[in-house]
Amino acid sequence: MFKYLKGDISIFTQRGLIRIDNIKTDDKILVIDDNNNYTYEEIDEIKKTLKKNYKLNKINFTNNIDSYFINNNIEIRAIQNLPLDLDISNFIEFIDYNKSKYITNANIEDISCFDYIGYPLITIPTDKNENEIQINELFECDKVKLKELYDKYVGTNNEIIVNINEKNKYYFIKYLCLLLEINISSYFNYKNQTISIKIPKHINKSGYNFFIYDNYIWNRVKSIKKINDYNGYLYTIHLKDNNKNKKMLTDMGIIS
């Protein structure tokens, strides 16, 4: 069974974060192993397939405006099976007792809205202007530097409007706030084609839907729904090195 992804999912390449439908065969895909070591791998083939009335999963996350459409047999790094009455402040201590039980590479069809999806805290080199700060460089900044960046890009604003064509700015602010433990919300304005980022005036840690553990940011799944009538193109990427222990890093997390 092919592992299909919708074209608007973005994958990290040597050129940065690129939508699948804009990736070229001479690009190199960033892949990560179970120890968070990463390399860039050459693409063997990109398959573009037209589907009609196809079954997919639609996934949404807290702190994220995007919807992701992928089929059942895609695996993603997740934390599962945590007790429903466990407060998020106790997650780390609880998981430490039996890490292998809770951290999994789960099939999408087994993911629920009680699960958390992991995004690795690694620095990824990309081609950039020396004065620019890349999204993944945020993860190497200490709290003082993060606060400086927050004051520069957010300041006293309670809301930031980003044009849909400047999505990297949205991701930058999103992860900057997450690392400072600021639980933003966001929504897409279809009429104006903009993203509105809401910055809370007061921080309420009990209301968080993410936590940092084992060099990952873990974001909670907001919803997952079955879509039975998808019509459009789907993509499959085959790498020249098909080692199953190496997984692709996307804007939603690590998948294989």
List its traits.
mainly beta, three-stranded antiparallel β-sheet, single chain, 4 helices, 14% helix, 16 strands
Could you give a short description of this structure?
By secondary structure, this protein is mostly beta strands. 14% of the residues lie in helices and 42% in strands.
Description:
This protein is mainly beta and about 260 residues long. The chain has one domain (about 5-255): Beta Complex (Endonuclease - Pi-scei, Chain A, domain 1). It is built from four helices and 16 strands. It has helices at about 90-95, 100, 145-155, 165-180; strands at about 5, 10-15, 15-20, 30, 40-60, 65-70, 75-80, 105, 115-120, 160-165, 185-190, 195-200, 210-215, 215-240, 245-250, 255. The strands form three sheets. Strands 1, 4, 5, 6, 7, 8, 9, 13, 14, 15 and 16 form an eleven-stranded antiparallel β-sheet that branches. A three-stranded antiparallel β-sheet has the order 10-12-11, with helices on one face. Helix 3 (about 145-155) packs across helix 4 (about 165-180). The longest helix is centred in the C-terminal third of the chain and has 13 residues, at about 165-180.
